[in-house]
Amino acid sequence: MLNVNAFELKVADLDISKLVISLTIYENLQGQIEGSLVVKDNINFYDTFIAHFQPAVEITFSYLGASCSNAFPANGITNMEITKFGKTYIIHFISSTSVNMEMESLNLVYSGPSHTILKAMWYETQGNHLPLRIDKKSITKGRYIVPSVKAGVAIGNVLNTAYDDEQSAFCLYQRLWDDGAARLSSFSFMDKNYFMENQQIGTAVHQSRFVIKNILAGKVGEKDSLANLNEVGTSSNFTLEEFQKDFYQKLAAGFWGSKISHIHLDETTKEELTPAEATSSLSLTRFKLSNKLYDDSTQSIFSTIQDPAAIAAFNAKRRILHGQYLKVNNMVPVPGLGVGFCVEVYQGGSNVSESRQDNNYIVSNINHKFTLADGDFMYSQDLGLIRE
Q: Domain check: are 358 and 210 in the same one?
């Protein structure tokens, strides 16, 4: 862990940094940013400023020369302990994008590629001050008549049917180090989106793929084996929490594909489709949407949801998210690192303890932890890493 500089935390536009004991900010591939902070309140701040409304939580800090600033709506208070010396409680917060997707409804007609529809929905919901960055375009397209439903539901419906030219599904997420922007990325993009670091070689600066490694990755007995105790991207705690857990249940659920029978109700025909993946022992029957829903021959955005390519993309997403899960705890933080990046892992084992788990991983989630110690905030990261 390393100290952060210029740490400032405002609630209701008042700096309460000196009251904060700890702060956690969580980002993940399957949602928007959320977090909480523990406050030791000996000035009656709760009753004076935040008892009757949900204030804004503004967090700004600098780390190794990089600055990070974000603002979030508060989302309630829990675990309040009251003593004669004051109160201790937890303030929760969520992303503004999450609030808007819950509070806003959509009642419009959208047409075009899935990523274009998603972007239109996003700006209709979030306005122009919370941008959506498209990392990879989809090849699915069609028309979506949104019948006055929550924006989050409508956006989720399109997201769950979209895939790119490599038959790879999408995720919509936020990063802490991304100025509040959201990103639409496919897994094929993330798998090649290596997080890079600058290396000084002589007078030249070269970029190389970032490697997360064990603090004691050097050879036993090396004089400098402890020299990287505070090197960014190092940890002493690696845990393979899951490797194909509940494999047969996942196999039975079709994670590796199935034979598909399409019944075309508007044509009274049945079409047998071979699986796009390995497993053919399972069989699915699906009623395909009519190709004649609209007079101008435009198809529904959901018309391909049961096609082999779409099911293969969705299955691959499930296999990646629920296949191998490597946890790295208390890592020395890497400025700029966020979910959706690809990193290499080297745990530095010997001949008897080296691991085939040393490989490339996609960053699935990061828990940014700030803890008060001797008057300064110590920063560390817990990472969840995934691969198929």
A: yes
Cα–chain center distance at 114: 20
Distance from the Cα of residue 300 to its chain's centroid: 28
* Concatenated DSSP letters of 102-166: HH-EE--EEEEEHHHHHHHHHHHHH-SSS-EEESS--S-EEEEE--SEEHHHHHHHHHTT-B-TT
349 falls within a domain: yes
- If one counts the domains in the chain, the total is 3
179: how many CB neighbours lie within 10 A of its CB? 12
Burial label for 337, CB within 10 Å (0-12, 13-18, 19+), is: buried
Q: Identify whether residues 212 and 357 lie together within a single domain.
A: yes
Could you report the per-residue pLDDT of 292-348, keeping only the tens digit for each?
Answer: 555 666 777 777 776 777 777 777 777 777 767 889 999 999 999 999 999 999 886
Whole-prediction pTM value?
Answer: 0.83
Q: Which pair of tokens denotes residue 105? A: 């409804």
